[in-house]
Write a structure and sequence with these properties.
Helix content is about 25%, strand content about 35%. A hairpin with a 2-residue loop joins strand 5 and strand 6. It is built from 7 helices and 10 strands. The protein is of the alpha+beta class and about 240 residues long. The chain has a 6-stranded antiparallel β-sheet. The protein is elongated.
């Protein structure tokens, strides 16, 4: 039995809630794991089933737990929350949230710009661009596939730069491009076979797809980024004002 402090003045359901939260943070309860039944937890904590339910309800409201009707309560996959009010890097965001973050280079090559890429980067179709594909991971979990395109004429040095510690747009800044603005569109999609294989999810699973065009100070587009983000582990934060 887990002993709760019944004389401290902290509500029992709050103590249950925080013990469960700590078990999730420390990995005792893992993402996707089913919690014991409420009756079993009530016995474990020495409280009523209603007290356990209230603690679980708070965590469900926060998105830490989720319920499946007729099946039980499960631990939610952890989320990396990106602040989309400013241009940030996955590594700094994930590490600031306490995750072990990593970037793996999947491929890097010079290819002719397809129509969509050419339009985004204000190029002629078939002009050479550097295509970079990387995988972002948090706590060894594949989170995001980056498919990046940079005009070859702008920075051929990207073919040899280390892309595991900083994104291409930050490298461009070291070559004199002042990054000023990014325009991005986010939409829901279903993972195709290739994306599902890399992200280790089922084909057809939900993903958040981002199309981002990064521009320099003079308005010149310098990079197109296409991102496929796991829908169960990625969230976007935006501040709206009126």
């Amino acid at each position: 039995m887990t002993t709760l402090n019944k004389t401290e003045g902290v509500a029992l359901y709050v103590q249950v809630r925080e013990i469960l939260r700590d078990q999730i943070k420390t990995g005792v309860l893992k993402p996707g794991q089913k919690l014991p039944a409420e009756d079993e937890l009530a016995t474990q904590f020495g409280v009523s089933r209603m007290t356990v339910r209230q603690g679980i309800s708070d965590l469900s409201d926060e998105g830490v737990l989720y319920r499946r009707r007729g099946i039980g309560t499960f631990v939610t996959q952890f989320h990396v929350e990106r602040d989309h009010n400013r241009l940030t890097d996955f590594l700094e965001t994930a590490r600031a949230e306490g995750f072990e973050a990593e970037v793996r280079l999947l491929s890097r090559e010079v290819v002719p710009a397809k129509l969509m890429v050419a339009k985004a980067l204000a190029l002629q179709e078939t002009e050479p661009v550097i295509r970079i594909q990387t995988l972002r991971l948090a706590n060894d979990v594949p989170m995001t596939i980056y498919d990046e395109y940079v005009p070859y004429k702008m920075c051929p040095e990207l073919l040899t730069e280390d892309l595991r510690s900083r994104p291409a747009w930050q490298i461009l800044e070291t070559y004199g491009y002042v990054i000023k603005r990014a325009v991005q569109r986010i939409e829901a999609r279903a993972a195709d076979e290739d994306v599902a294989s890399v992200l280790n999810i089922e084909e057809g699973a939900p993903i958040l797809f981002k199309n981002r065009i990064i521009s320099a100070e003079d308005g010149t587009p310098v990079e197109l980024i296409l991102c496929h983000n796991r829908g169960d582990s990625y969230s976007a934060k935006m501040i709206l004002v009126r």
